[in-house]
Amino acid sequence: MRDTFLIVDGNSLMHRAFHAIAELDGDEMTHVLWGMIKKELLLPFVELNTEYYDLSLPHRDETENAVTSQAADAIRRLRVGVKCATITPNLQRQEEYGLKKLWKSPNATIRAALDGTVFRAPILLKRVKPVVTGWEEPVTVARHAYGDLYKAVEYRVPCAGKAELVFTDESGRELSRQTVYDFPAAGVVQAMHNRDDSILSFARCCFGYALSVGQDVWFGAKDTISKDYDQTFKLLFQKVFDEEFRTDFEKAGLHYRYALIDDIAAKVIRSKGGMVWACKNYDGDVMSDMIAAASASLPMMTSVLVSPDGCFEYEAAHGTVTDHFYRWRKGEKVSTNPLATMFAWAGALRKRGELDGNADLVRFAGCLEQAGLDIFEAGHFTEDLTMLCDPSEYTDKPDNDTLLGLIRARLETLLTE
User: Fold this and answer.
1) The pLDDT of residue 293
2) Separation between Cα atoms, residue 116 and residue 345, nearest integer Å
3) What is the pLDDT of residues 130-159, one digit of tens each?
4) What are the backbone angles phi and psi of residue 43, rounded to the nearest 5°?
5) Strand pairing category for 117-122 and 301-306
6) Angle 307-308-309 from CA coordinates, rounded to 5°
7) What confidence score (pLDDT) does residue 295 get?
8) pLDDT digits over 234-281, tens only?
């Protein structure tokens, strides 16, 4: 069944076919901002058709985390989702919220369910100069969201002894036994893994996404040191590129570059930006935050999870802005950067419009992004950005209500142009 959405352009109401989006709500200040963005910037202009999932920490605890799996299933079924930031609890959070247990990261659960790759790119402002002054376009970090350190098995070695790496096939035959280290005393040992099928999916996501945005792919690992683990990444990436993407890349005038990870990192810093930087899981975790900090601010970082079979989940890369939430709960006015969350909504609406052949929805998404950018470029900065700039570089530091009011007024203007 096809549903409808509604856009108000000041003169008429435009109805178009519109399939549903999976809406994943979250925690703390980002949950508050989520509701404000919907109220001020979406519902007056778009009749949202969403399947709603409450991923707040209390509700995850109440449902034994089943709601997270339900949300992942919805993204797979609907092909498009938009997610608010959520809390991954530690012991302090468990006590604060009275949780039954330390629930896993919702992002990790959804990534695993979709077999997805995370693409993160900064939102650049002319008024905020990046630390790397040569960057003219955003650097998009593609993070392989499987395996490595995040699925590692660890053991705290208590005394002298031998650690071994043993592989036994499914019939029980021992195929390999290697000494990891002969410990003369206490220490620590770790083993991590990856799978060929996951690496192949990662490579396909990177090359496919790069084609969709018209950017080169750069990939780096340490195959000179890791002659099996990292070498496998290198060989499988090259296989996917040669067999599935080389022709399309050549037609588009795009390139694939492989080098050692340290060489790629140096080249990214010396570049003009504008590439997809494919990273293994841990590398991507670190490098995406580095790119965010070097570009401007983590609240200016977008994130989209892309599955090999064409499912998309959009979110802001930042956390739940806990300090603002505590202040807001006391009745204080706060100045929280909404751009990444706005861009998440815009990305989901744009993708929905593209999949449905809905040009009006795609246009609205572009206007939503531009409205936010225009207000920030006019010098209305949130707290995170004012700390990066000289006071002469911005006009004011509006609170959330004031800022969203300014963005809404600009959005109304753009929609009538």
Assistant:
1) 82
2) 19
3) 788 888 899 999 999 888 888 899 999 999
4) -60, -30
5) antiparallel
6) 90
7) 80
8) 999 999 999 999 999 999 999 999 999 999 999 999 999 999 999 999
The span from the CA of 145 to the CA of 150, in Å, is 9
**Residue 138 DSSP class:** P
Please name the residue that has the structure tokens 């989006």.
21
Contact partners, residue 67, CB within 8 Å, separation at least 6 = 53, 54, 55, 59, 60
For the chain, what percent of residues have pLDDT higher than 90?
A: 79
For range 62-72, the mean pLDDT:
97
**Cα(182)–Cα(163) distance, rounded to whole angstroms?**
6
Query: Which is it for the CA torsion 106, 107, 110, 112, positive or negative?
Result: negative
- Compute the residue count for the chain: 417
Burial of 196 (0-12, 13-18, 19+ CB in 10 A): exposed
d(CA 294, CA 276): 16
Average pLDDT over residues 405-410: 97
Q: pLDDT tens for residues 169-196?
A: 999 999 999 999 999 999 999 999 999 9
Confidence bin at 298 (pLDDT 50/70/90) = confident
- Which whole-number Å values give the CA distances from 13 to 44, 140, 233, 403, in the listed order? 11, 37, 51, 26
Which residue type does 168 have? T
Asked if 118 and 291 count as a contact pair (C-beta separation under 8 A), the reply is no
Rounded Cα distance, 241 and 256, in Å: 8
Do residues 207 and 117 lie in contact, with contact meaning Cβ atoms separated by under 8 Å?
Answer: no
Please write down the long-range contacts of 236-239, taking CB distance under 8 Å and 24 or more positions apart.
236/196, 236/199, 236/200, 236/203, 237/199, 237/203, 237/206, 237/278, 239/200
Indicate the residue type of 214: G
Rounded Cα distance between 238 and 244, Å, is 10
| φ/ψ (deg, to 5) at 22 | -80, 120
Task: With a cut of 90, say whether residue 322 has pLDDT above it.
Answer: yes
Instruction: Work out the pLDDT band at 10, boundaries 50, 70, 90.
Output: very low
Position 369, amino acid: E
From CA 141, how far away is CA 118, in angstroms rounded? 8
- Which residues are within 8 A (CB) of 373 and not within 5 positions of it... i.e. 6 or more apart? 123, 125, 339
Three-state DSSP class for 316? strand
> Max Cα separation, the chain?
79
Instruction: Report CA Rg, the chain.
Output: 23
